[in-house]
Structure formats: structure tokens, C-alpha cells
Automatic annotation (TrEMBL):
Transmembrane segments: none annotated. Signal peptide: none annotated. Residues 153-173 are annotated as: Disordered. This is Phosphoheptose isomerase. The keyword rRNA-binding does not apply. Residues 64-168 form the Mannose-6-phosphate isomerase type II C-terminal domain. Keywords: Isomerase. It comes from Algoriphagus kandeliae. InterPro entries: Man6P_isomerase-2_C, RmlC_Cupin_sf. One of its GO terms (biological process) is polysaccharide metabolic process. GO terms for molecular function: isomerase activity; nucleotidyltransferase activity.
Length: 173
């Protein structure tokens, strides 16, 4: 996997373009993207490519054949320098994250009380439990994080409405 280099001076458009080109060069089909998030944005990868996504970015996480057939919402999250996603948790999913490029921090806790922020380590898998409070934090440079949702009720998969925001820098609910 080639390295994507960004600086704190890289514009959002430059970062999104580089990540788009990387995903395209790796053969991933992007089904949607959101560049309008105040913290950065994301790319959603075609669910039909979940095995390729898993093998490329999460080979250390064992999956069953049944899991490969479930909706896992493969994504690339792009977090801007100094930006933070909301302090949140989910009722119907756990999540798996891996920092692939750049820098990012993570805050996590099993209670509503925010814990200490820790630097994420490139290529180290982070497993977030269902109900675990968490926040992705931008550091001095852009961060690019691969993400898979692990639905606790595969017949009723989680979606964006399954976000309980406890605190948000952008006044979202």
C-alpha cells in the first residue's frame, strides 16, 4: 500500500482528491462521498467489495463467511487537522477502525465521561464495542481511517440515525 502524504496546509479538496485517486488505483468502487462534514468527510465503498476491503485493510480481524454477506458499510473517514467528530455511541453496531495515513487521535470510554485522548498508531486495529463512547480527533495533519461497522442485529442494520451524540463541536443533535 503506497503512502499518502498530506500536510496541515493541504486543502480539503487536495486531500479528497488524493484519497479518491488512491482508492481508484486500488480498484475500489466509491458509491458515495461526503465532503460537507465540518470535521472532514468520508468515502463509502461498494458493499460488494467488502472481502477486498477487509483483506486490504483488516487482515488481522477474522471474519466468518456469514459476516462477509452482511452489510458492513466500508468507509474511509478523513478528519481535518484540529477537528473532532462528535462524542458518540451506537445502540446497533460496534466499529472497527484503522489509521492508514496521516495522524489522528481517539477518545473512548464505556461511560458518558470523556476519557483521555490517545494517538492512534498507523496500521493498528481499534475495536469499538457496541455502546462504547468514542470520538475521532484530528491532530496537526489530516488523518485517514478505514472503518467497518459490525451490526449487532444484522437483520436490522445500523445507519446514520443510530448515532447518539453526547457532545458535538458543531451543535448537531
Amino acid at each position: 500500500m503506497s503512502e499518502l502524504l498530506f500536510s496541515s496546509a493541504s486543502s480539503k479538496d487536495e486531500v479528497f482528491q488524493k484519497v479518491f485517486e488512491f482508492l481508484d488505483s486500488e480498484g475500489f468502487s466509491i458509491v458515495s462521498q461526503d465532503r460537507e462534514r465540518p470535521w472532514g468527510g468520508f468515502f463509502v465503498i461498494d458493499e460488494k467489495q467488502i472481502r477486498k476491503f477487509h483483506d486490504s485493510f483488516f487482515p488481522d480481524v477474522p471474519f466468518t463467511e456469514e459476516q462477509y454477506s452482511q452489510k458492513l458499510s466500508p468507509k474511509f473517514l478523513l478528519v481535518a487537522p484540529g477537528a473532532r467528530l462528535s462524542w458518540q455511541y451506537h445502540f446497533r453496531r460496534a466499529e472497527i477502525w484503522k489509521l492508514l495515513f496521516g495522524e489522528a487521535g481517539i477518545v473512548r470510554s464505556m461511560t458518558d465521561e470523556m476519557g483521555v485522548e490517545h494517538d492512534m498508531v498507523q496500521n493498528e486495529t481499534v475495536k469499538l464495542s457496541q455502546g462504547e463512547r468514542h470520538r475521532l480527533v484530528g491532530k496537526t495533519n489530516w488523518g485517514v481511517v478505514a472503518e467497518i461497522w459490525m451490526h449487532t442485529e444484522p437483520s436490522h442494520p445500523s445507519d446514520e440515525s443510530d448515532i447518539v451524540r453526547l457532545q458535538d463541536d458543531y451543535s448537531r443533535k
